[in-house]
Design goal:
By secondary structure, the protein is of the alpha+beta class. The chain has one domain (15-104): Alpha-Beta Plaits (2-Layer Sandwich), CATH 3.30.70.100. The protein contains three helices and four strands, in the order βαββααβ. The protein has a four-stranded antiparallel β-sheet with strand order 2-3-1-4. The longest helix is centred in the N-terminal third of the chain and has 16 residues, at 22-37.
Length: 107
């Protein structure tokens, strides 16, 4: 991604007793989000946690989704109109409350 791009990260903490359906997330939720956000969305990645930093430790996040936009305005204008529908789909793949961070790509 180029410098100045806005990255919205949605992180799902790997907590005991919580569930996450990666198949649904990859094949239903993220494509739905992409369709709703349209041309404002310039990229997306999905990551699955495999380990913590030390050997044989649990990953702190079970999954991470990242979506990229040209500007904060582009994100807010596209996401805001569909936020309710996007958020309403979360219970279809997890019972984890996601942590959301908006960042600017520097390098």
């Amino acid at each position: 991604m180029k410098k100045g791009t806005i990255k919205v990260s949605v992180l799902y903490p790997n907590e005991t007793g919580k569930t996450f359906n990666m198949d649904y997330y990859c094949n239903k939720h993220v494509p739905m989000v992409g369709g709703l956000l349209g041309d404002a969305l310039i990229g997306a990645t999905i990551e699955q946690g495999v380990s913590g930093g030390a050997p044989d430790t649990t990953a702190p996040y079970i999954a991470m989704g990242n979506i990229y936009f040209e500007s904060i305005d582009s994100f807010q204008n596209s996401f805001g109109a569909h936020a309710d529908k996007i958020m309403a789909d979360i219970p279809n793949y997890t019972n984890i409350e996601p942590v959301i961070q908006i960042s600017e790509v520097l390098v």
